[in-house]
Specification:
By secondary structure, chain A is an alpha/beta fold. Chain A is built from 16 helices and eleven strands. Chain B is mainly alpha-helical. Chain B has a domain of 39 residues: Histone, subunit A. A two-stranded antiparallel ribbon of chain B has the order 1-2. The chains are: A alpha/beta, B mainly alpha.
């Protein structure tokens, strides 16, 4: 029998229900692995062992009383962007190094209610701004497949923790690729749902018209169970979608015979690493063998998604991060001369370089006289990008392509070149601009490093995406590969 | 679009960010490079295109005007840098 941390959620849940081991023992197993392996990977900012064990004991009581659900007793990790009552919520920033959240995010609350013990809070790029996890105040996360490479970002800690078996599943957030890109780099399954599918309440805001919570797991079937518990309308988030959540698990085994797959020619052009292209093409061949048909499509405005994103996201970030002023919570500078000095130095000391860059770009594009040339123009292009997808979904059921142009790059390789770093998200950003769901699943590795296949669906088609991913995972073993870890 | 160091200093002031003089150079280069990337938007004529206000074209939901939140001032002020009598303290603004 394979080790505990290689098993699916449904297998673990069945073992818990059968009393093969207790929820407490399962949580202890993961806490032990974190102790053993987290050090050099640096996937966790905080480990909440005591809280996890208490929650596990409560899960055991529910199991004993016969009130357990499919996630009761299954340990999870939360990206440190989600507020957790009484637990430090840093968002990867010095600004919030001293911030103990006074309430739980809706996503955290719902997964807690489902009986999932929280193992800890995962490392991330500062305020979710980054594609490599190198902008974290707590140091970079390392890719469990190759410790000299980045895990991707911004949810790099969550992706690395799932890949290394340091939790069963983890939450993440995706503003321009922050779930799908690290999922691809670390060889795990990651889903970014439709904008508004999961509540943003208690999720520290970066770019409010793009931010969306999602899941990292070892398979689409596992992700389906966790997303089921997270998704749904929340009165407290004014952009939460008031639409019913279908039962994802029952859709998993639906047939994909006759599925029409669209391959956007813009996602297979220059700039795509040949090794990644080969792996993605092999996965698409598998889909053809499973009864799907392949159609070339075009998303003509997609190449503009990176420039559009670097107007919209910084503009929204500069507004959202204005709240960090050293007055009510977070970092405050010493001995301020006056109020302006208090604001400027608290922010200057509290924020790292990438966050400052984005705040300044956002401030500039929103400043008097520039609004039409930048923000308005970007919002118009966003409409065109969204229309491209709408037209595509008149012809095909799902869009597929690479999640990233290359496999994980070396630590430090792009740290000093923001534009090169931004171009990493070239295949993921358009999905956020259009508000669509996207998913990345591991396919055949290239040169020993994981490769992600991206699936993009029409609005609220998470169930279909998980189903399509699950069918491939039933037919192949790519998602079962795991990195070999060295002891801390 | 090239920003010089004095532009960066002005933007940093608008954003209430203290930036060391020694950092102005690299910020002006990086911000100019990012704006060059952004300029690619001008390749497409968007005249007459409606700006997209919401990814799903949804209207903003409104709630009824009823009190739903309790007062949590004491709890929220526990994490404040400096408070007194329920007020947040900042350096004196008015002499």
């Amino acid at each position: 029998m394979s080790p505990i941390h290689d098993q699916s959620i449904s297998a673990l849940s069945a073992a818990l229900q059968a009393g093969e081991f207790s929820a407490r023992e399962l949580t202890e197993h993961y806490l032990g692995r974190i102790e053993q392996f987290n050090g050099p990977i640096n996937a966790y900012i905080s480990v909440t062992a005591k809280l996890a064990l208490t929650a596990a004991e409560q899960a055991d009581e529910r199991l004993a009383a016969g009130h357990a659900g499919p996630l009761t007793g299954i340990p999870i990790a939360h990206k440190d962007i989600f507020c957790t009552n009484g637990v430090k919520t840093s968002c990867g920033s010095r600004m919030l190094d001293n911030f103990v959240a006074p309430y739980d995010a809706t996503v955290v609350e719902r997964l807690q209610a489902a009986g999932m013990p929280m193992l800890g809070k995962t490392n991330m790029d500062e305020f979710a701004m980054g594609s490599s996890n190198e902008t974290s105040f707590y140091g970079p996360v390392r890719n469990p497949w190759d410790m000299e490479r980045v895990p991707g970002g911004s949810s790099g800690g969550s992706a690395a923790a799932v890949a290394a078996g340091l939790c069963v599943a983890a939450t993440g957030t995706d503003t321009g690729g922050s779930i799908r890109q690290p999922a691809a780099f670390c060889g795990v399954t990651g889903i970014k749902p439709t904008y508004g599918r999961c509540s943003r309440w208690g999720m520290i805001a970066f770019a409010s018209s793009l931010d969306q919570a999602g899941v990292f797991a070892r398979s689409a079937a596992d992700a389906a169970l966790v997303l089921q518990a997270m998704a749904g309308f929340d009165e407290r988030d004014s952009t939460s979608a008031n639409a019913p959540v279908p039962d994802y698990a029952t859709q998993l085994d639906d047939s994909i015979d006759g599925l029409r797959i669209g391959l956007p020619k813009e996602y297979f052009g220059a700039g795509l690493d040949p090794g990644v292209a080969t792996s993605v093409e092999a996965a698409i061949k598998e889909y053809e063998a499973l009864g799907a048909s392949v159609h070339e499509i075009s998303l003509p405005n997609a190449p503009l998604s990176v420039p559009v994103y670097y107007v919209v996201a910084p503009a929204e970030c500069s507004s959202n991060l204005a709240r960090f002023d050293g007055v009510r919570y977070g970092h405050r500078c010493e001995s301020a001369q006056d109020l302006e000095d208090l604001y400027k130095r608290s922010r200057g000391e509290g924020f790292g370089t990438e966050v400052k860059r984005r705040i300044m770009i956002g401030t500039y594009v929103l400043s008097a006289g520039y609004y039409d040339a930048y923000y308005l123009k970007a919002q118009q292009l966003r409409h065109l990008i969204s229309d491209d997808f709408r037209r595509a979904f008149e012809q095909v059921d799902v869009i597929m392509g690479p999640t990233t142009p290359s496999t994980a790059f070396a630590l430090g390789a792009k740290a000093n070149d923001p534009v090169a770093m931004y171009l990493n998200d070239i295949y993921t950003i358009a999905t956020n601009l259009a508000g669509l769901p996207g998913l990345s699943i591991p396919v055949a590795p290239a040169d020993g490093m994981p490769v992600g296949l991206q699936l993009i669906g029409d609005v609220f088609q998470e169930g279909r995406l998980l189903n399509i991913a699950h069918r491939l995972q039933q037919a192949t073993d790519w998602h079962r590969m795991a990195p070999r870890l060295t002891l801390a | 679009m090239a920003l010089d160091t004095s532009d960066v200093a002005k933007i940093a002031h608008l954003a209430r960010l203290s930036i060391d003089d020694g950092e102005l150079d690299h910020f002006s280069t990086e911000l100019s490079n990012i704006l060059d990337l952004v300029e690619q938007m001008n390749a497409i004529d968007t005249s007459g295109v409606e700006p997209m206000a919401h990814p799903l074209h949804m209207a903003q939901r409104l709630r009824s005007d009823q009190v739903t939140e309790m007062n949590h001032r004491d709890r929220f002020q526990q994490i404040a840098p400096q408070t007194e009598d329920g007020l947040y303290l900042v350096p004196k603004v008015i002499e």
